[in-house]
Write a structure and sequence with these properties.
This protein has 130 residues and is α+β, with helices and mostly antiparallel strands. The chain has a single domain, classed as Aminopeptidase. Helices cover 30% and strands 23% of the residues. It has 4 helices and 4 strands, in the order ααβββαβα. A hairpin with a 4-residue loop joins strand 2 and strand 3. The chain is globular, with a radius of gyration of 14 Å.
């Protein structure tokens, strides 16, 4: 694993292959440079997983793009990605920073291991696609 923002091509391939929503190359080119911290997991020289933290660098952060190629899932790679991202947040983010993520399906069980809690009923996550 290396602390590195994935290339646009790797980003698009990993998202698509792991079942996350597709993004355009234009959107990836615009968004990836705004990454606060990222990790890419390699199998040999081949990227097989990634995760990113985005945010304002002070008050708010969001963990996004946690994905692992299907043939490499259930090997602890997602745990390694989360551990690295959380460790970097604990190291660099200011005290009191709010860190959020969206947990799809059973991924919530992984995120709970890193201290994340459901916000409902006090608050509910909402989204909108443009």
């Amino acid at each position: 694993m290396r602390a590195a923002i994935p290339s646009v091509e790797t980003y698009l391939r990993l998202r698509s292959a792991s079942g996350l929503s597709t993004k355009t190359a234009e959107a990836a080119r615009a968004g990836l440079p705004n990454t606060w911290h990222a990790v890419t997991v390699l199998h040999g020289d081949e990227p097989v997983g990634m995760g990113r933290v985005i945010g304002d660098g002070g008050c708010f952060f969001q963990i996004v793009d946690i994905c692992v190629m299907p043939e490499h899932q259930d090997r602890g790679i997602g745990k390694r990605i989360m551990a690295e991202l959380v460790q970097e947040l604990e190291r660099r983010a200011p005290d009191g920073a709010y860190v959020s993520l969206i947990a799809d399906g059973n991924a919530r069980f992984l995120y709970e291991k890193y201290g994340f809690k459901q916000t409902a009923p006090a608050s509910v996550g909402m989204h909108r696609t443009v």
